[in-house]
Amino acid sequence: MANISYKCPTCGAEIFWNPTEGKFVCEYCGDSFTMADMEASGQAAGAVDSSNVEHHEELMEGEQGQVSSTDGTVGNDFVRYKCSYCGSEIITDRATAATVCVYCGNAVVMGEQLINDFAPDLVIPFKVEKSKVMQAFKDFSKKPLTPKAFDPEQVVEKMQGVYIPFWLYSGECHGVMQAEGINKKTHRSGDYEITEKSYYRVMRDGRVRFRNVPVDGSSKTDDAAMDSIEPFDYGELTPFKPAYLSGFLAERFDEDSEKCFERAEKRIQNTTLDLLKRSAPYDEVDVESFNSNIKKEKPLYAMLPTWLLYTTYNGTKYFFAMNGQTGKFIGNLPIDKGKLTVFSAIGAVIGGILGYIIMG
Amino acid sequence: MIDFLRKAAEKIGFMLIANSLLFTPIVASADGNGAVGAVVGAGLGGLITGGVLVSMSKTKHSASRAEKYVEGNLELRQQQDVFERTTTDRRKISN
């Protein structure tokens, strides 16, 4: 079997997942099909047949580092596939699980990246389509310090819909906190301000349950960016079917669940400590020790939708991301230092006038 | 994170030094609270304006908490609160 692609049951043309309609839509005849329709037509079956997938070809010696991907994927470890529709060569990152052939526009899902240990449990299908992403990026770019020369129109076309592999961790955190609790009372007596502080020895032992704490399992994706586009609405998690990847890029994980758990663990521990501190009714709680133990369940492997943009401005690389389900946009925009100086100077003048009025 | 904090501390440090170098002579020669207020207000106004505008352009942050993923409430198994001591501070209020 070649790499997986999907055809319109009516006219046989290439067919893609349409985020707005939540269906497959044929761009040629206009018919649309639900996932159930596609399954009824003998396509989009639940799992990839692991005994019948096309495997990648390794690049020739010396090619690695000399070639760039044909599909815009970033990385430095490329492999070669063949487009099942036009036969063209697709050079892509080793962890790519789905892409689009740059020559014929055919959606190509790499079955070998979605079988055995790499078979995702769940997926949230894309809900935000590219035209809305483009408008959202233009709006997002309109910040007071954005340089005039930074033109979102020029870069937004490079925005790609990418399913990012995420590990979802659930479990229970048991934490024990030892702390000093301080209550403070202040009153006035004649010309004196009297402050009384009462000190308490505090101990809290408690448990907190966590459900689906997400951590991206891709080494190439910016971790902070993936944290920043949270949260996803897990109510729309659905059992994984490769057909959802049709028309988008997708990566499989290249960092396993044990490695990624460190990031989830820190977040879970911090939140458990926060909750234990909040349960102590003092003005200040100074933590002296905190011990925790997390019992985690088997993590789930999910493909979550994102729109990603890598671009360069004045020699500096910038990365922007949008949650492909909720539309939340994040990224660090370039800053015009001249504008920053002018606005800060205006702030300083206003601050100076206010300071003079208040203190004068 | 440590890198980010170090860079932020450096930038704030430079800004404060620059502010002090520029305005300390004015404060020193000021003969009233109004001038001191103006100098302090100018420094704070510049820093706050710059800080707010920069934060509007930078929306990427690492997550350090998981409160959105807490299921139910904290279940306390044991708790202790033992009173230790009280201290009293008296501070003369300047007129």
Distance between the termini of chain B: 44 Å
Share in β-strands of chain B: 15-25%
- Radius of gyration of CA atoms of chain B, rounded to a whole number: 23 Å
Residue share in helices of chain B? Answer: 55-70%
Shape of chain B: flat
Separation, N- and C-terminal Cα atoms of chain A: 82 Å
H/E element order of chain B: HHE
Q: What integer value in Å does the Rg of chain A equal?
A: 26 Å
Largest sheet of chain A: 11 strands, mixed
Oligomer: heterodimer
Biggest interface, which chains? A-B, 76 and 59 residues
Largest sheet geometry of chain B? none
Count of all domains of chain A? 2
SSE pattern of chain A: EEEHEEEEEEHHEEHEEHEEEEH
Number of beta-strand segments of chain B: 1
Low-confidence stretches of chain A: none
Q: Which terms would index this structure?
A:
heterodimer, A: 360 residues, alpha+beta, 2 domains, 11-stranded mixed beta sheet, 3-stranded antiparallel beta sheet, globular, B: 95 residues, 2 helices, flat
